[in-house]
Design goal:
The complex is a heterodimer of chains A (191) and B (588). With 191 residues, chain A is α+β, with helices and mostly antiparallel strands. Helices cover 24% and strands 35% of the residues of chain A. In chain A, strands 5, 6, 7, 8 and 9 form a 5-stranded antiparallel sheet that branches. A 4-stranded antiparallel sheet of chain A has the order 2-3-1-4. Chain A starts with 28 loop residues before the first strand and ends in a 7-residue tail after the last strand. In chain B, helix 1 packs across helix 2, helix 3 runs parallel beside helix 5 and helix 16 packs parallel to helix 23. The N and C termini of chain B lie far apart (60 Å). In chain B, 57% of the residues are buried. At the A-B interface, helix 1 and helix 2 of A face helix 21 and helix 24 of B.
């Protein structure tokens, strides 16, 4: 059937596209968004699907029902993007059917942000003493201990947790679990 | 109104209470209880399709031509997955659909049961919202909520997944009046301060344009009337996207024709050179803007849209107004009439003179041919034969769709049904079925291509069964014309798999389906054949043999701005290929 498909004539042209493909290098910003949603099945999948489907970043995400009587959950998302992308993310979240409100805590003022980390250390001897001393300095709590390991519990800003983990790294760090950021605005009114 | 009934009875009762007269569907194991209720009543008429995708597109055509939601009923598993394309299509083009899917019984969900699929999971990104109803007492509220969500704000498709045990279970039915949505209350009224600012900006403009889209049609016939009034009061030019055709009459002197990749030379140059662009229910799609950083560089931009996420998404605007197009235009006209702002008549006159120079390039011109039917000519003759009738046009996707948009001149909204955003080949034939169901006595024509029409050809059987005299006007060039055009222009004329070998004999095929087949091969036969098609009160497959290698012009080539259009009469394919070849270096 090749007869119908005319062979190319003349010089062979490179393939092109009718889409304009542009690389953008705008500066990016990190924003913490607080989203109140109906606590219904699939709501988290909707939010995550929005981010993955439209190519937005999720740096951190936490979710839990915060108002039991009204079955409302608060989703806290830390995301990175250009100012235009951040605006678009907020608009896209805001138009979702089960979303009650979207607040950009970063744009509304410096939010209070906390993370909880569990940090497991395995060591003996002087390293063990040093780990315990540093944990004390960071006000980390000893959640569990055996003769050759500790599990420290630590809450604080992301920076503080990063720093603690970095310090523990040479002292027999085994594994880390972090909750992601919980955040509230400083204003009196609810977000 | 609270009543005890089964879940299946609730579905039918809710349809009746929502004023639904027609639904499109296909039965299967997981929806049999609902089908058992459907046959025992005559308030809601069920149209049996031949493939679930057909039901979806038929419902889209129904919705688009009536302004009412289209309703679909299909079974679980493959029934639901076959609906993914029409749901996505409706999402892209903002068409209100309510789709009911059967689901395996709740205790089997997650067990890989027969005909089980994670329907809400699969259709989550394909719908505006969806629900899996696990408790029969939630069913009535969910259905009423589904209709509310489909129709309010930016319209779109929704889906309600109903397990079979919920259809059998008995519970309490509540009516639509008792449902208020917890969270979804989109804004429809525009900000009055912004509207006042818009009036000032519109009055001050020297080179203005109204760039209108499907949002005007979705807002209702009233919005289209307001747009006409605005154009009359200001004397400003109007262009429209593919989706917005008909909202503004093509016979009006202010009409510039469609804009975008295959829009008119005058519309695109107006967009490029204007100093004020008022986007009304249009979303700056990439087929409209061409190269974004060269898009209308010198203009202030106002955008009116019901969806806040449409504003500033692709193109930064100076003034965004969130609201329903009809309500915003109404408020804007009240301010305009109260303030009677002075517009710069001299500047406007100069602007129209410039526009007339662009119009004089006759960008839609094509070389007439005595021996072969030119596709543009076929649509011109079709338009001439049907313009004074009560006509609805649907299309498939491809060259024929663009020629229909260019050469069929619409005067009223809701008369033009096409797949714009998703570009779904196979849309037009089932959409025509849906339109004809809603408008039994009207003339409904699907302007089709030979490749597209084969994708949903089986729905001819639906048309025959339900006595729907749709006319399928196939511009048969024996190619996937638009694919071939792109290969010609963008891929060195290497025609990889864009031909249609072994096409069926459409006239014999029509006969096999029990409808009427007509063929036209010469320009001289066309008018009589079209007249015959219109006169036949049965479904028709019209095989219109057109020039095989015609291309769709004018065209904004890749990576180019609106003022760099190529006109079909003035360039050779080699020149176009070369023009794109250079730009192609920065493209993938």
């Amino acid at each position: 059937m090749a007869a119908r498909a005319a062979k190319a004539k003349g010089p062979v042209l490179p393939p092109a596209s009718a889409y304009f493909i542009e690389e953008r290098h705008d500066r990016t910003e990190r924003h913490t968004l607080s989203v109140m949603v109906d606590n219904e099945p699939g709501v988290l999948a909707r939010v995550i699907g929005l981010f993955s489907g439209r190519g937005y970043n999720i740096d951190s995400l936490t979710v839990s029902e915060t108002e039991h009587a009204r079955h409302l959950s608060r989703i806290t998302i830390v995301t990175t993007g250009t100012p235009a992308v951040i605006e678009q993310i907020k608009a896209q979240l805001g138009r979702m059917v089960p979303v009650h409100s979207v607040h950009d805590l970063t744009a509304e003022g410096t939010p209070i942000e906390r993370e909880l980390a569990l940090v497991k250390i395995g060591n003996r001897g002087s390293e063990r003493v040093e780990a315990l001393r540093l944990a004390d300095a960071f006000h980390a709590e000893v959640v569990d201990a055996t003769v050759d390991h500790f599990v420290f519990g630590l809450s604080g800003t992301t920076d503080k947790i990063e720093q603690f983990i970095a310090i523990m790294a040479p002292l027999g760090l085994i594994e880390v679990c972090r909750t992601g950021i919980a955040a509230l605005s400083r204003q009196g009114a609810p977000a | 109104m609270e009543k005890q009934m089964t879940g299946a009875q609730m579905v039918v009762q809710a349809l009746i209470d929502q004023g639904v007269e027609h639904i499109f569907g296909y039965p299967g194991g997981a929806v049999l209880p609902i089908y058992d209720e459907i046959i025992q009543q005559d308030r809601v008429e069920h149209i049996l399709v031949r493939h679930e995708q057909g039901a979806g597109h038929a419902a889209e055509g129904y919705a688009r031509s009536t302004g009412k939601p289209g309703v679909v009923l299909v079974t679980s598993g493959p029934g639901a997955t076959n609906m993914v394309t029409p749901l996505t299509d409706a999402l892209m083009d903002s068409i209100p659909l309510v789709c009911f899917t059967g689901q395996v019984p709740t205790h089997l969900i997650g067990n890989d049961a027969f005909q089980e699929a994670d329907t809400v999971g699969i259709t989550r990104p394909a719908t505006k919202h969806n629900w899996l109803v696990r408790d029969v007492n939630d069913l009535a509220r969910t259905i009423h909520e589904a209709f509310y969500v489909a129709m309010h704000g930016r319209p779109g498709p929704v889906l309600v997944d109903i397990p079979k045990d919920v259809q059998f279970a008995t519970g309490t039915y509540i009516g639509p009046g008792e449902v208020r949505h917890r969270s979804y209350h989109p804004r429809t009224k525009g900000d009055p301060v912004a509207i006042r600012t818009a009036v000032e900006m519109i009055a001050r403009a020297k080179r203005p344009v109204f760039y209108t889209g499907g949002g005007v049609v979705n807002s209702g016939p009233h919005a289209a009337q307001l747009l006409r009034e605005l154009a009359r009061l200001t004397g400003y030019p109007v262009t429209s996207t593919l989706m917005g055709l008909g909202a503004f009459p093509a016979s009006d002197p202010h009409w510039l024709g469609m804009l975008g990749m295959h829009g008119t030379f005058e519309a695109n140059n107006v967009m490029h050179d204007c100093d004020l662009m008022v986007a009304i229910g249009a979303r700056f799609d990439d087929r409209i803007t061409g190269r974004v950083n060269a898009f209308s560089p010198g203009s202030k931009k106002i955008q009116i849209d019901i969806d806040p996420s449409s504003i500033n998404k692709n193109v930064r605007v100076d003034l965004g107004i969130v609201g329903d197009v009809g309500e915003v235009l109404e408020d804007l006209l009240i301010v305009w009439k109260a303030e009677k702002p002075k517009i710069d008549k001299a500047a406007l006159k100069a602007w129209w003179e410039q526009i007339d120079r662009w119009r004089a390039r006759r960008s839609l011109a094509y070389r007439p041919n005595r021996d072969v039917i030119m596709p543009q000519f076929a649509i011109e003759r079709l338009f001439a034969a049907t313009r004074d009738r009560d006509t609805y046009i649907t299309t498939e996707v491809g060259q024929h769709q663009m020629w229909a948009a260019q050469f069929y001149r619409f005067e009223e909204p809701n008369r033009w049904m096409t797949s714009g955003g998703l570009g779904t080949m196979g849309y037009g034939l089932p959409a025509a079925v849906g339109v004809q169901v809603a408008h039994r006595d009207s003339l409904v024509i699907d302007i089709a291509g030979d490749a597209s029409v084969l994708m949903t050809m089986q729905e001819m059987s639906t048309a025959v069964q339900h006595d729907l005299p749709i006319k399928i006007f196939i511009l048969n060039n024996q190619y996937m014309g638009m694919v071939r055009q792109w290969q010609e222009l963008l891929h060195g004329n290497r025609l990889s798999h864009s031909y249609m070998d072994s096409l069926p004999d459409f006239v014999k095929l029509a006969d096999a389906y029990g409808c009427v087949g007509i063929r036209a091969e010469k320009p001289g036969e066309l008018d009589d054949a079209i007249a015959e098609m219109i006169e036949v009160k049965r479904p028709v497959l019209f095989d219109c043999r057109v020039a095989a290698l015609a291309n769709c012009f004018p065209m904004i080539p890749s990576g180019k701005a609106h003022n760099e259009m190529l006109l079909g009469e003035e360039v050779t394919p080699e020149e176009i290929g070369a023009a794109i070849g250079a730009a192609g270096k920065v493209l993938v």
